[in-house]
Amino acid sequence: MVGSDKLPVSSPRWLLAELTYACPLQCPYCSNPVDFAKHADELDTQDWLRVFSEARAMGAVQLGLSGGEPLIRQDLPILVGHARELGYYVNLITSGYKLDETRIAELKEAGLDHIQVSIQAPEKTLNNFLAGTDSFEQKKEVARLVKKHGYPMVLCVVIHRENIHLMREILDMAVELEADYLELANTQYYGWAHLNRDRLLPTREQFREAEAIAQDYKEKLKGKMKIYYVVPDYYEDRPKACMNGWGTTFLTIAPDGLALPCHEARSLPGLDCPNVRDMSIRDIWLHSDAFNRFRGYDWMKEPCRSCPEKTKDFGGCRCQAYLFTGDMAAADPVCSKSPHRSAVSEAIASARSAFEANEPKPLVFRNAKNSKSLSG
Ligand code: FES
């Protein structure tokens, strides 16, 4: 039981295994921590197999394999095979870069259920610029192979100011690739995306226009393709129910074994996240301070504490609260009831003036060199 509200602790349902921070791509909106290069001591195969078993015993049913680029792990088929034996639904979240037909078949054989391929843009020059690699044609080929091998075709395009004007072309590309699902994920401004926010955050008008186009295709493609338009929360007046509430559903394990209540929690100072090298998943989930810190409602300050909407949005996102206010227990400033809402309006205004100035700030690409120089 948690706090005086006596909320029962639910089981983790979704395990996200960030297998490595290594990645051949350099996307400037990556949500990995900016200092990822400092955390290169990856868990080995046996560690991951144990983590999967322990989380499954706690009730986890969905396993996401991500990174960095999870394909870099040569033990991927072993990990997939073990997860499948345990009864997980196993999802590979990949850039698709260098994924060939032999490997796709091998992963299918091992029991992989689902491959989500990301593409940066619907045309070569922009895709390759954003990815920092010549990958466009190859990614499209991977999307076709994924379909050919009987996986659901799940395409993900992260949306920001560099590609939002191409919304129609993105949707047409998804049709051409016969995607079953298209995730149009507006950038969430954490990690590298936060660093590049002035350059990446679209204007309100751009969002509205893009959303209308996505809605139009949603209607047109009903029954053929499912389109998810992940709303940009800076333009909302209520926060997202981040992670479906802290420590209720999601468990992320970083490449070096750090157990995180959300994929950004590593950047929260003083949270002191536990490591799977030192503690069992059961102890981490039930007894660690990090996982209990924002469970329930007792930790909340005003205006969240007395807000009737707290059971819907759980006070929003702890990481966003920290990024804007320096206080991870503050209300998410996206909320119009937050005393810090003006910080979000200032971020929007700053990105708009960068856009109107017509002198684009250089993007900081996500790579080990930049990570080292930014994290000292
Ligand atoms: Fe960490 Fe929202 S991303 S709580």
Automatic annotation (TrEMBL):
EC number(s) reported in the record: 1.21.98.4
GO-annotated biological processes: molybdopterin cofactor biosynthetic process; pyrroloquinoline quinone biosynthetic process
Free-text cofactor note: Binds 1 [4Fe-4S] cluster. The cluster is coordinated with 3 cysteines and an exchangeable S-adenosyl-L-methionine.
One Pfam family hit: Radical_SAM
Keywords on record: 4Fe-4S, Iron, Iron-sulfur, Metal-binding, Oxidoreductase, PQQ biosynthesis, S-adenosyl-L-methionine
The protein's required cofactors: [4Fe-4S] cluster
Tagged with keyword RNA-binding: no
Residue ranges occupied by any Radical SAM core domain in the UniProt entry: 9-224
Pathway per the UniProt entry: Cofactor biosynthesis; pyrroloquinoline quinone biosynthesis
Binding residue positions for [4Fe-4S] cluster: 23, 27, 30
Enzyme class: oxidoreductase
Cited InterPro entries: 4Fe4S-binding_SPASM_dom (IPR023885), Aldolase_TIM (IPR013785), Elp3/MiaA/NifB-like_rSAM (IPR006638), MoaA_NifB_PqqE_Fe-S-bd_CS (IPR000385), PQQ_synth_PqqE_bac (IPR011843), PqqE-like (IPR017200), Radical_SAM_PqqE_MftC-like (IPR050377), rSAM (IPR007197)
Subunit structure: Interacts with PqqD. The interaction is necessary for activity of PqqE.
Family the UniProt entry places it in: Belongs to the radical SAM superfamily. PqqE family.
NCBIfam families (alphabetical): PQQ_syn_pqqE, rSAM_more_4Fe4S
Primary role: Catalyzes the cross-linking of a glutamate residue and a tyrosine residue in the PqqA protein as part of the biosynthesis of pyrroloquinoline quinone (PQQ).
Annotated protein name in UniProt: PqqA peptide cyclase
Lineage: Bacteria, Pseudomonadati, Pseudomonadota, Gammaproteobacteria, Methylococcales
Gene: pqqE
